[in-house]
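Help needed: design a sequence for this.
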């Protein structure tokens, strides 16, 4: 199993790839298909024609690593792909689900919460101003 941090970049090829390619063949695809830097630490994910095999290429600790998985039953499912796209950007959770054989097209996520941006002057004002929000919960700014 791959160990993935929250900030890792992951790119999935939208078209099947001949998985007989080794490290060098996959590096060539990364450079020619996406004009991407294979040394960047990004994980590049490739599915075979039958979608029962996957290779993940990445650079780590001075060398390239290829992670390979073959499903004994079933197929890897592609997420939704925009028309004409040559890649899909995934997050660590999506890659983990894909590698476990979960159909990403059927996964529904809750909208992620984002904090409201602070007003520029809020940190320069009084304590009450620093905690002021649009709802008025913390009172009004002085």
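Sure. Designed sequence:
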């Amino acid at each position: 199993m791959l160990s993935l941090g929250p900030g890792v970049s992951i790119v999935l090829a939208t078209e099947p790839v001949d998985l007989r390619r080794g490290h060098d063949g996959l590096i060539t695809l990364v450079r020619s298909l996406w004009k991407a830097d294979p040394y960047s630490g990004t994980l590049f994910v490739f599915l075979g024609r039958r979608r029962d095999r996957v290779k993940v290429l990445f650079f780590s600790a001075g060398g390239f690593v290829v992670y390979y998985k073959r499903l004994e039953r079933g197929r890897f499912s592609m997420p939704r792909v925009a028309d004409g796209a040559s890649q899909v950007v995934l997050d660590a959770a999506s890659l983990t689900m894909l590698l476990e054989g979960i159909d990403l097209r059927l996964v529904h996520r809750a909208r992620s919460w984002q904090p409201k941006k602070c007003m520029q002057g809020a940190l320069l004002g009084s304590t009450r101003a620093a905690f002021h929000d649009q709802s008025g919960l913390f009172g009004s700014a002085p």
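The chain has three helices and five strands.
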